[in-house]
Predict the structure.
Amino acid sequence: MATAGSAVGLGNIWKFPYIAGQNGGGAFLLVYIICVILFGLPLLMTELYIGKQSGKSVYGAFRTLRKNNRWQWLSWVCMLTGLVIMGFYFVVTGWCFHYFTAAITHAYKGMDSASLLDHFHGLVSDFPTMLSYSFLAVLLTAAVLWFDVNKGIERLSKILMPLLLIMMFLMAGRVLMLDGSNIGIQFFFQADFSKLTPQVVLAALGQCFFSLSIGMGALITYGAYMPKEQDITITSVQVAFLDTLVAILAGIIIFPAVFAFGVNPAEGPELVFVVLPEILEKMSFSWLSGILFFSLLGIAAITSTISLMEVVVAFATEVSAHTRHPLNRHKSVILVSITVMVMVTACISSMTGSPSWLIIGGHTLFDWFDKLSSCVFMPLNAFAMALFVGWFLPKDGIAHQLGNQPGIKTYIADCYIQIVRFLVPLAIIAIFLNGLGLWK
C-alpha cells in the first residue's frame, strides 16, 4: 500500500483524464492498458528489483550492483527527473490545497461550468495565491521528511488508499446517473482507431511512466525498504492493478460529467478542477463530499511528493558524504526544499506571463517540465534501467528475486528477461524516432 501510495496520485486523477481527453478517449485507454502490461509492469518490477537487490537508494544502487561507477550517471539523471517533476507537481498540489479550502468555505456553491472555468483561470493568474499554496505543499512534504517517514507512510496509506477508492466509486455511481452520461462512457471505452496515431502511443507511454512513477528513482527507494520475503512480482502486479483502477475510475467520473455538462473533453490540465466541483455539488451532502474528496486528493498528492523529494534528499545526503562538507538529513531537506521552491516560483511566474522570457517557444515552464519529464527523462531512464538489468546483471539473481514460487519463478524470469532486453528498449527507440520525425 505504501508503494501504491507513491504511484497513485495526481497522475491518475488529474493528469490521466485530460491526457485521455486530448488523445481520443477509448483509443488512448486501449493503448494505455497495453503500455501498462507490456512496459509498465516489467519496468515496475525492474526498479523494485534494483532497490531490493542492492538495498540502496538511487545513488548507491547502480554502483553496488555493478561494483563500479560506470552506471552512476543514471542515478544523477533520476535525481534530475525528480527535480523537474517537482517543479510543476507542487503547483498542481497547490491547486488541490486551494480547492480543499474552497470546499470548506463552499466557495464554488452555485457555480456552473463557465464560472468554475473562470475561477480556475483566475487562480492560475493569481501569483501570490498560487505561490502560497504551492509553498505550503513543499513545507508539509519537508516536515514529513524531517522525521521518520517509513512507518508513517505505511500506516497512512493503509487508511487513505481504501478511502480514496470508496469515494471514487461513490462519485462514479452518482455521475452515471446524469442525463447524457452514456455519451461520455462511449467516448472513454469505445476505441476509435482512426484517432490512433504515433502521438497517441507516445502520450500513453509517457502517461504510463508518470502514473506508475517509473523512471524517477522513487520505486528503487521503496524496493530498498522491501522485506526479503516480499514477492516482487506479486507486489508489482498489485501496484499496477490498483494504479490503473484509480485512473479508469477517474475517467468514469470525468467523461460522463464532461458530456453531461457540455465541457470539452480536450480542455486540458484544468479539466478535473472544473468538472469535479460541479459533480460534488450534485451529490448528497455536497459540502462534506467536497471536503472529503479534495482532502483525499491533496493527501494522494502529498504521498507522491514525499516519495519524489525523498529520492533527491537521500541523493544529496549520500553524494555529500563523499565531500569535505557532508550534509546530514536535515540540511539536505532544507537544501532540496529551497531548490524546489525556486523552481516552483519560476514555474508559477511563467504561467502568469511575467517575466515573458520564462515562456519558451510559446510554452510555459509548467508545460516544459511536464513534457520533459513524461516524454523524455522518464522513458530514457526506463530505457537505461531495462538495459542495465537485462544485459548487465546476473540472470540467477533476477530469477531469485522475481518470485517466491519455485514452480513459476524460472518461467517468470525468462519472460521478464526477454521483455526488458528486447521489447522495452526497441519500443522506446521506435517511439522516440517517431517523435523526432525520423521514422513515420
Observations:
- The first helix runs from residue 2 to 7.
- The chain has 18 helices and no strands.
